[in-house]
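Researcher: Last one for today. Full complex below.
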Amino acid sequence: MSGAGQPLHSFAAILAWLAQQQQQQTQTVTQIPLAELDQWQMGGDPLRLAHRSGRFFTIEGLHVETDAGPTPVWDQPIIHQPEIGVLGIITSVFDGVRHYLMQAKIEPGNINGVQVSPTVQATFSNYSRVHQGAATTFLEYFVEPGPAQILIDHLQGEQGSRFLRKRNRNMVVALDADLARRLPMPDRFCWMTLHQIKALLRHDNVVNMDARSVLACIPTGYGQGHLESAAPHDFSFFDDSIPPAAHSPQPRGRHASRHTTDEIIHWLTDLRSRYHLHLAPRPLDGLDLWQFDGQSIHHTSGNIFSVIAVAVATHTREVQRWTQPLLQHPGHGLNGFLMQRIDGVVHLLVRACIYPGNREIFELGSTVSRSDVELHFGRPDAPRYLDLFRRPPPAWIHYAAVQSEEGGRFYHYQNHYMILELPPDMQLDPSPIHRWMSLAQLQDFVRHGYVNIEGRNLLACLDLAAPRGGEHGLH
Amino acid sequence: MSGAGQPLHSFAAILAWLAQQQQQQTQTVTQIPLAELDQWQMGGDPLRLAHRSGRFFTIEGLHVETDAGPTPVWDQPIIHQPEIGVLGIITSVFDGVRHYLMQAKIEPGNINGVQVSPTVQATFSNYSRVHQGAATTFLEYFVEPGPAQILIDHLQGEQGSRFLRKRNRNMVVALDADLARRLPMPDRFCWMTLHQIKALLRHDNVVNMDARSVLACIPTGYGQGHLESAAPHDFSFFDDSIPPAAHSPQPRGRHASRHTTDEIIHWLTDLRSRYHLHLAPRPLDGLDLWQFDGQSIHHTSGNIFSVIAVAVATHTREVQRWTQPLLQHPGHGLNGFLMQRIDGVVHLLVRACIYPGNREIFELGSTVSRSDVELHFGRPDAPRYLDLFRRPPPAWIHYAAVQSEEGGRFYHYQNHYMILELPPDMQLDPSPIHRWMSLAQLQDFVRHGYVNIEGRNLLACLDLAAPRGGEHGLH
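Model: Here's the assembly. Have a good evening.
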């Protein structure tokens, strides 16, 4: 359990494995008219797009009314997939170093083919096939863990702007090293340490969205700097490369966090009580300001996503050829956290976010999250704090990279991910929908399901052990 | 802030005040046929019972299907009231002793007239009237707190078997003693300490359901015995009658709780993922096994609640005469917790509960909670652990009293509330839907909204400082 050992693979070897997987797993993705989808059809009342088998997901029309935010009424398509999938990572400790088993996986919407993914990504359809053979590789360790020890098992949401109340199980299970070494291991799997994954996260579009979502559920940061150490002690075994002494929680002063947990809960309760969100179904061909033709379903402004269709041919999946709908996004969005050390404790500026597909009207997210960011820079109607992300001083840049969202549902959808560390003495204008939360506090709220996928995905990129500064910027 | 002071009123004076209020606030409640309700009418599609103004609540028909539990399909009426009300208590410290401002309040369904209630019980209809005068007394300290400090503000659910996803804000706000002493104070209000309220809770039907719900959100137990002391330290000021030294959290060992918080979350995630609950609206006159006539809506078995109507005349409310529907329950139910000191730490046996009106398919509740308890004692289909509550050894009885549920919605609905402390060496057969949770752990889950009203209401009765044993029993 000491930090004496070495990772199984060097970082260079991992990059070489990934390059090899990139060559071995190839696909051809061609946009086709919506009307030419095979096995998918428009039907039902109200009209929706669904697979003939009833499986996978549907795309439905939604009418939204809310008294929170600048837009009181709008229509939009939304993805509906009420089943709960599994996003799971197997972990094991080899020679005193904890490793995570990652998979190189290709998805039709990925801009670059293969990305580093969890050990398992399974829909409930895969999941329920477990007992009939042909199961997803390694799925059994999550569904009927047997010798595996379940460390993390959270229900966590997907994009509330694009999915209707969708949740997945985000899981981490531990295997004994002897058992883990004997696993039959297809080439597309690779063991790596958390530090190695964090290093991959500094590259554009290498670690996929589902992996980031699961990684965000692993509390990290122990011994990595000026961190509040009161994070749940249950997790101290997660990073065995850190000396045991660093795991001991230090006494926490009453004001280690800028706000108490009860203050945060009060703030959210007040927002959740004061505002309303009303949803009503609408037919896909009757959405206000959306054009529905045989080609796609697109917003008349051109600034919001479209529903498109693709034909996929791949050498690496069970089904070799299929067609499916995807959501296509114009341009790059922004997903940004402001960070600050308050009395030496790392805090993140969290936003209370309302999206139509949220299970709770307000959930916690990153400081700024916009898919149409270019339209707002420098404008008076810009979201609060957006302009800080435009040309930040290099010394503020804790993290900056471009990351892809879920390639099984989104076509080439990328966001600028940025974490800016503000100087300790810098004061921001207050905002009624933002609060500073300490990292340990935010991690505790993650496990209770308060934090949306934008917030979790960016939290996964936080690496307090990494070198600071850089030359990144959005323009 | 020391514990040197005395309560404002002796316990005898509080009982005298309550007796006086019982005489001053009187009502006449007469059952009438449903068809004779004034201002309430059947209408809509599907058919439901609603107030002509659109305010208050509706009673709707529901078809329920689930693969969890012994009954896969049933119909039932359910109360629908989507607005969020306020249940709030004002607290202040006089002469070093913390007091809570309670109200003697009469409700049409109360079996005994007046009960001790929170400072404020306000529906959103009251709530939104704040700016137009005629507001509920003291409501302003909860809605626009001004000089008040908000200590607790949780969204908490009501009975999921009777209410459709209903939640209220459960609040505690602190006022400075100088301000609190100057409050204009109608006779029906009285300051009392938490210990005095806990003593009232040992009497039958004295403290109402809403008060119990709010009290359960106040972590207590510091210095009151062999208690895990790692409860949220933010609350250490809640009971100033306890010496300050007792507030200091003791170092918590890794195994202070029988299960880690992550193990509890995994258990719940697994249940929430594996089982399904499907609801569909039905007309009130088309519910399978329910009889709908002009008199009431009742189940053919006679063992489930009925929807009845009452005419109310009272001298103590703004509206002096009105009619309204209520839910009437036959017999007494049981709400029971098993408690055990595990390695010296107080634990409660928590059940994962599924009810149609739950916001989450499974929520945490008491060990046993049944409205039709008499039907099950001693039978093979009895709920797990029920029979332990039938004739428990007197030495096990930590708490036993009869308590009323919400008299604004339920007619004479009472439950036996029992907390049994098992001997430390007693082993129970395991149950897939029960887990031992330490008191501090359960209190943390309360503030994150996991715990249902049955669990919270019984938790409010827990008083580790009280004398043990007794001669109570159900029969």
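The first strand of chain B starts at residue 27 and ends at 32. The interface with chain A takes residues 84, 150-155, 169, 232-235, 254, 260-262, 265-266, 269-270, 272-273, 447-448 of chain B (CB under 8 Å).
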